[in-house]
Amino acid sequence: MTDYYCIVVIVLWPNPNNIYAYTVQAVMMEASSPAKAILFGEHAVVYGEPAIAVALDRRLSIRVRSSDTCRVDGGSLSMRRHRYLRWALNNLWNGEPLEIRTRSQIPGASGLGSSAALSSSIAAILRSLRGEWKPRDVATDAFEIEYNVQGGASPTDTSCSVHGGGILVSFRKESEHLWSISKGERTWHVHNLDPPEMTLVVGFTGRPSLTGRQVAKVRSFHERSGFARETIREIGDLVMEGVDALKDGDMVRIGALMNRNHSLLSILGVNSKELQSLVDAALPYSYGAKLTGAGGGGSMIALTDKPEKVASLLKARGGKPYIVRVSMVGCEVHGT
Ligand code: MEV
Q: Which residue blocks in the chain are alpha helix, DSSP H?
């Protein structure tokens, strides 16, 4: 990532409503955040079950400077294309207009957390411009952005993007607790979970996955079916087995749990024929494989020690493969 220098001058002045507003002069600030993959527990985590996610070595970064009008990548702030930035600026910012530039190595709507990385990065910049930058506050703001734009979310993606490495999100407070995030009656406790060295191959189906839509689909199944609620509880039990398997670095067990998690997600209705075709292609050379994120489209992941072979098989089935490793670097801000 490019290093550069900048000057930040923040001046407080009382606005007509007697609320202190920020004027930001000569600002050039950059934040970047990693992609994520959910290893276990997507969807179930929305209902208070645990989940495990890891940050990946692909990043999204945004750069801001003060400006006369809000602009994103040279154009005006669009209701449709810039929903996350728009919500953040409308609800978390009370200062001068900002010109924003985005750069991303994370394919959009792919299940790899591009919106979480964007939400974390803008939340970190807005906090930094106000002189505060604490990971737990950025994680809370980033969650609010995703929750409001998507119409529902757990803090898994955003907390993973802020923290980096691995996280366990759980309804119980365990050791290595980082922060807690609440919405309505639900509180999610976010913990550090050191993942073992592992190579994952992501297979993007090329078909965008809209998280809000998949979450709504599972919600309606959850509301009307005891079987769906039982399946979600079963995913929760499997995630806690996953914690032990990860701590032991037991690839065979991790892989078997991934396969089981994939089957349970299929029962919830978020698998697709493209995802299944990529999972089937990867399995002969992998410890395990599953869809990751919201599903419906988006991506699958395979845990393997033959990444090149798996990548070529995914490509042959029309997938876009990425060989990735876990990144310990979470959200970073430069230029304060
Ligand atoms: C999306 O990456 C993960 C879901 O569990 C939704 C969420 O936790 O916000 C499907």
A: 83-92, 114-129, 135-150, 156-163, 211-224, 226-248, 251-268, 273-282, 307-316
| Closest-CA residue to 43 (of 301, 295, 303) | 295
Q: Atom 2 (ligand 1): residue with closest C-alpha?
A: 293
User: Are domains 9-194+327-334 and 199-325 of this chain identical in fold?
Assistant: no
Q: Which of 46, 49, 213 to mutate to test the pocket of ligand 1 (most atoms within 8 A of CB)?
A: 46
Query: What local confidence, expressed as pLDDT, does residue 166 receive?
Result: 98
Mutate to test the pocket of ligand 1, among 145, 149, 157, 292 (most ligand atoms within 8 A of CB): 157
What architecture is the 9-194+327-334 domain classified under in CATH? 2-Layer Sandwich (3.30)
Domain 199-325 is found in CATH 3.30.70.890: yes
Domain ranges of the chain: 9-194+327-334, 199-325
- The arithmetic mean of pLDDT across residues 222-233, rounded, is 98
Amino acid at 141: D
pLDDT in tens, 92-133: 999 999 999 999 999 998 999 999 999 999 999 999 998 878
DSSP class of residue 326 equals: B
Query: Using CA atoms, how far apart are residues 223 and 194, in angstroms rounded to an integer?
Result: 35
CA 125 to centroid of chain Cα atoms: 17
142-165 average pLDDT score: 96
Distance of CA 148 to the CA centre of its chain: 15
The pTM assigned to this predicted structure is 0.91
If you average pLDDT over residues 34-63, what whole number do you get?
97
Alpha carbon distance 268, 256 (integer Å): 19
- Ligand 1 contacts CB of residue 42 (under 6 A): yes
Nearest atom in ligand 1 to the alpha carbon of residue 116 is 2
Tokens of 126: 């807005």
The answer to whether residues 102 and 118 touch, using CB atoms and an 8 Å cutoff, is: yes
